[in-house]
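ok new one. same drill as before - structure tokens go in, u give me an amino acid for every spot. 191 of them this time. try not to just spam alanines like last time pls lmao
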């Protein structure tokens, strides 16, 4: 008679489920690794194109900076510096001639109240704008304030600043009846 005896201390176990799950996880990890590898490859390839464009831009910048240095040395020569000063002077004359005086006086006429007179006007071009220095005479504070309010609300003038304000006694015999003399600056926007 044969007796089957199991002398093992632990019962027999199969590892089939563990091996199947491990294999499946290995396959999934391999697929993820391939996807990440492909992503890294495509990013490096696109970065290579970007690096090549950046290098080309750097080379172009170096060339342009060299040309700029050459031009700066060319314009620093005495003969060319004089020519540059002359062209700057001529451009400033052209800019002064381009001011529409008639339109500016029409705009001032529209806003000039009774009791205020224009004594002096000096336009100057400053950074692409026409900066106008005005000197006015006014009979009273009320007339001066009316003029300043009208000037500030006018679409033709902006950035109005009073530079100097003095009171004086009218001089008889000269026709000067102004009690106030005001110097102000404004930017004329219709040029």
């Amino acid at each position: 008679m044969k007796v089957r005896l199991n002398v093992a201390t632990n019962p027999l176990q199969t590892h089939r489920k563990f091996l199947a799950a491990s294999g499946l996880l290995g396959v999934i990890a391999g697929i993820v690794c391939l996807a990440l590898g492909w992503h890294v490859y495509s990013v490096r390839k696109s970065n290579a194109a970007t690096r090549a464009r950046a290098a080309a831009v750097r080379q172009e910048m170096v060339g342009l900076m060299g040309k700029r240095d050459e031009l700066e040395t060319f314009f620093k020569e005495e003969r060319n510096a004089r020519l540059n000063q002359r062209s700057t002077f001529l451009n400033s004359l052209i800019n002064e001639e381009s001011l529409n005086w008639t339109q500016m006086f029409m705009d001032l006429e529209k806003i000039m109240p009774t009791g205020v007179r224009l004594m002096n006007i000096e336009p100057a071009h400053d950074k692409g704008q026409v900066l106008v220095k005005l000197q006015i005479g006014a009979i009273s504070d009320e007339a001066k304030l009316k003029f300043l309010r009208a000037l500030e609300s006018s679409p033709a003038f902006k950035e109005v600043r009073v530079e100097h304000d003095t009171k004086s006694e009218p001089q008889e015999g000269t026709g000067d009846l102004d009690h106030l003399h005001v110097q102000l600056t404004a930017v004329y926007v219709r040029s």
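Strands lie at 116-126, 129-138, 157-167, 180-188. and btw The chain has a mean pLDDT of 84.
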